[in-house]
Specification:
This protein has 150 residues and is mainly alpha-helical. It has one domain. The chain is built from 7 helices and 2 strands, in the order ααααββααα. A two-stranded antiparallel sheet has the order 1-2. Helix 5 (89-102) packs across helix 6 (104-112).
């Protein structure tokens, strides 16, 4: 595979600000917003070298795990005809991905003001789960190998 010279992150550690540059700042209000944000992240991931994609993936995991807080987990979801119900484990994971996908300012805002997380517990933004797989897909496209195999 031909080596591209226009990749960011080549040769050194991916600075924390580059993680957020790849994520961008995104409105996350519904599935269409999520799809548009994911397209932008994919485009920016494709500009990284393979090691940069792996570093992005590690940083994503750390950012999602940092949101694994009881105060966020305990937020309830408004369900039509049922009322407010607890989040499922999967739903909580998807909500955390949606929060990260919204961008650094929103992410840090949630860490400082937990009620702001409520915007992400609704199933209409749970397609942000796909953020978890983008690095795997881009890495495989670049190298022909699974990200964990290298």
């Amino acid at each position: 595979m031909e080596e591209r010279t226009d990749r960011i992150g080549a040769g050194g550690p991916l600075p924390p600000t580059d993680f957020w540059t790849v994520i961008g700042a995104n409105r996350i209000g519904d599935a269409a917003d999520v799809a548009a944000a994911l397209t932008g992240v994919r485009t920016r991931l494709e500009r990284l070298d393979p090691e940069g994609v792996r570093r992005f993936r590690r940083e994503l995991v750390a950012r999602v795990e940092a949101l694994d807080l009881d105060v966020l987990r305990s937020m309830r979801v408004d369900a039509p005809l049922v009322g407010r119900i607890p989040q499922t484990e999967d739903g909580f994971l998807y909500a955390r991905h949606a929060c990260v996908l919204a961008g650094r300012r929103t992410y840090e805002g949630v860490l400082g003001d937990a009620p702001r997380f409520a915007a992400f517990v609704h199933p209409r933004v749970h397609s942000a789960e796909c953020l978890a797989y983008l690095a795997y897909e881009v890495h495989a496209q670049m190298t022909g190998q699974e990200i964990d195999a290298v």
